[in-house]
Design a protein that fits this description.
Radius of gyration: 25 Å
Function: Invertase that cleaves sucrose into glucose and fructose.
Shape: globular
Bound molecules: alpha-D-glucopyranose
Number of helices: 23
EC number: 3.2.1.26
Largest sheet: 4 strands, antiparallel
Keywords: Carbohydrate metabolism, Glycosidase, Hydrolase
Helix content: 25-40%
Number of strands: 15
Structural class: alpha+beta
Distance between the termini: 50 Å
Catalytic activity: Hydrolysis of terminal non-reducing beta-D-fructofuranoside residues in beta-D-fructofuranosides
Strand order of the largest sheet: 10-11-12-13
Strand content: 5-15%
Family: Belongs to the glycosyl hydrolase 100 family.
Length: 679
């Protein structure tokens, strides 16, 4: 990366200015010719920046997070201009600091486009209210409460609410357990271990123009080759952010959210190609560069990496999803919802959604991505529809559904989000889930089925069931497999995706419970001596050679290939707390606590049992430190933890049932005969 490809955010301080990179004639990634709305053109004219044609420009702004018009309309439902599809038009009379990049009018064409995708899909639950084709759908809790049986989908909304209430009781039970647990605890002193972790976390903080904006990935002064570990990674910052938020420190998180939002506008190119505008960078670095034309003056600039420098040049699909998830968490934990209501922030959400919801060749609601587009950012055979991305996508959609301001301009997008949630949830529950029963079913699959009512829709050959799985899966356990493609199921257990399936309620209550049952039963394989394995089992021999491309970093039981990543601890804690099993999380946190500091907070561990510090593991890895602290604080604050996970949303379920029933019953034969969807 060069400083020429950097963006700086200006402040009042002379040393910190905006270094804008845009190409003529486009400004911040959009070309004026791509939109026609005169209002926006007018605004650009008024802002006086549109004529500028320099490769770099500086812009002086307010000392706060700047570059956007910080106009917050207290009326959540009324921020955009009605009668316009734009939904982006801002009140320029209140402009404080105008950064041309913040207009992002490309979105002008987004909403109608997305809306059109769903034009033919009813978004209304009521429209299917009289459909009785899905009688006898069983909704059963997995938490030892009496099974609920719905004889049919009622037309009456109150009936649905009855179910929701009963199901909610189940989760409230969980919450009560957690409360009891915390009430019995006398708030203890912060241990020496935590004090050390806090110090290290604070040492990892990166400032920009004097303000904290994130944490570096690793902060080991002895490391002579930090590569890009001295950058702020979006995904790595999430546990840091939660630690700060749970500790009552919101500023760094707010700064991070707003600065990364600005980076989203960055015009990025890989060779001659520009990826979508909503893409969030994998990471960014604060650089100090000479001020143009001066040898003495310097300024700080933010330099993002969208994958153009990353090993393998992979697009960080998860970054935008994590950004949305963190934005919601910020609101929940600080009570400050004005941030998510800001016009620029709303636009940022929409741009990310646009990238995710745009039509492609997809036949399924799951997101199609390249290998290495998430935490596993090297080739590991997870291209296609990897679980991790689907679970984060589902979570981000649920967050967006809560945060998007509904008005005329956004209602079709909101409907699209709801439809996708319903379809994705059905798809994952139905096709990714395996347990003893399902594996037995696959074992007896007929193949080469042609027709819409095939049972073996993906034409999976039973011989694909790996031998390790047959003995491994526990009687009461189950999990979402890593990937589903034509004639291919990736049966590996991927931890992050399964944990987020629990946290976001992508799985049913029973499925979520079964995942934890499996982890408990297979503790030595999944948690072992250092929580938790990134995936199980490792690829070995020929498989390793072909699938990883002979990657020496991803040798069996190392790094992404079955290595143990302590950062997964906080997500495990959250999932356990949601399911009323804080004891499991506590056990894992205790065992990690015995080694992390002694081992100098490694990034990952190697070997089947997670006994050795990873071959190429960084030390003083920030998300290891922050993940540990966050786990501790979540366990102590069950109520706060509960604001970070979701319960089943029955409206989404009903929406899906309605969509399925609208299609011909024959097409949903699996569903009609035996569905896991609601069980
Ligand atoms: C490695 C990990 C990635 C992480 C980065 C920074 O590349 O695979 O998930 O974000 O390091 O810690």
């Amino acid at each position: 990366m060069t400083s020429g490809s950097a963006i700086g955010i200006s402040t009042m301080r002379p040393c910190c200015r905006i270094l804008c990179n845009y190409k003529s004639p486009s400004i911040f990634g959009f070309s004026p010719t791509k939109f026609s709305d005169s209002a926006i053109m007018g605004m650009l004219t008024r802002s006086g920046h549109h004529k500028s044609n320099h490769r770099h420009r500086y812009n002086t702004c307010d000392s706060q997070i700047v570059g956007y018009i910080n106009m917050i309309n207290p009326n959540r439902r009324d921020f955009s201009v009605s009668g316009s599809n734009l939904g982006l038009v801002r009140d320029f009379s209140t402009s404080v600091c105008v950064n041309i990049g913040s207009f992002r009018p490309r979105v002008a064409s987004l909403i109608p486009h997305v809306a059109s995708d769903f034009r033919n899909h009813s978004t209304s639950v009521d429209s299917h209210a009289h459909d009785t084709s899905f009688e006898k759908i069983y909704i059963q809790s997995g938490l030892n409460v009496k099974p609920l049986v719905i004889e049919k989908i009622e037309t009456d909304q109150s009936k649905l609410e009855e179910v929701s209430e009963e199901e909610c009781d189940v989760s409230n039970d969980n919450l009560d357990n957690l409360k009891d647990l915390s009430e019995n605890k006398v708030r203890r002193e912060v241990s020496e271990l935590e004090k050390e972790a806090w110090k290290l976390l604070r040492d990892a903080v990166v400032t920009y123009c004097g303000n904290p904006v994130g944490t570096v990935a690793a902060n080991d002064s002895a490391d002579k080759q930090p590569l890009n570990y001295d950058q702020v990674f979006i995904r790595d910052f999430v546990p840091s952010a939660l630690a700060f938020l749970l500790n009552g420190e919101g500023e760094i998180v707010k700064n991070f959210l707003l600065h990364t939002l600005q980076l989203q506008s960055w015009e990025k190119t890989v060779d001659c190609y520009s990826p979508g505008q909503g893409l969030m960078p994998a990471s960014f670095k604060v650089r100090t560069v000479p001020l143009d034309g001066s040898n003495e003056a310097f300024e700080e600039v933010l330099d993002p990496d969208f994958g153009e420098s990353a090993i393998g040049r992979v697009a960080p699909v998860d970054s935008g999803l994590w950004w949305i998830i963190l934005l919601r968490a910020y609101g929940k934990l600080t009570g400050d919802y004005t941030l998510q209501d800001r016009v620029d922030v709303q636009t940022g959400i929409r741009l990310i959604l646009k990238l995710c919801l745009t039509d492609g060749f997809d036949m399924f609601p799951s997101l199609l991505v390249t290998d290495g587009s998430c935490m596993i950012d090297r080739r590991m055979g997870i291209h296609g529809h990897p679980l991790e991305i689907q679970a984060l996508f589902y979570s981000a959609l649920r967050c967006s559904r809560e945060m998007l301001i509904v008005n005329d301009a956004t209602k079709s997008l909101v409907a699209a989000v709801s439809n996708r949630l319903s379809a994705l949830c059905f798809h994952m529950r139905e096709y990714y889930w395996v347990d003893m029963k399902k594996i037995n079913e696959i074992y007896r699959y007929k193949t080469e089925e042609y027709s819409t009512d095939a049972v073996n829709k993906f034409n999976i050959y039973p011989e694909q069931i790996p031998s390790w799985l047959v003995d491994w899966i526990s009687e009461d356990g189950g999990y979402f497999i890593g990937n589903v493609q034509p004639a291919h199921m990736d049966f590996r257990f991927f931890t992050l995706g399964n944990l987020w399936a629990i946290v976001s309620s992508l799985g049913t209550t029973r499925q979520n419970q079964s995942i934890l049952n499996l982890i408990e039963a297979k503790w030595d394989d999944i948690v072992a001596q250092m929580p938790l394995k990134i995936c199980y089992p490792a690829l070995e021999g020929e498989e390793w050679r072909i699938i990883t491309g002979c990657d020496p970093k991803n040798t069996p039981w190392s790094y992404h290939n079955g290595g143990s990543w302590p950062t997964l601890l906080w997500q495990f804690t959250l999932a356990c707390m949601k399911m009323g099993r804080p004891d499991l999380a506590q056990k894992a946190v205790d065992s990690a606590g015995k080694r992390l500091s002694v081992d100098r907070w490694p990034e990952y561990y190697d070997t089947r049992n997670g006994r050795f510090i990873g071959k190429q593991s960084r030390l003083m890895q920030t998300w290891t430190i922050a993940g540990f602290l966050t786990s501790k604080m979540l366990l102590e604050n069950p109520e706060k933890a509960s604001s970070l996970f979701w319960e089943e949303d029955f409206e989404l379920l009903q929406n899906c049932v309605c969509m399925l029933s609208k299609a011909s019953r024959r097409k949903c034969s699996r569903f009609a005969s035996r569905s896991q969807f609601l069980v």
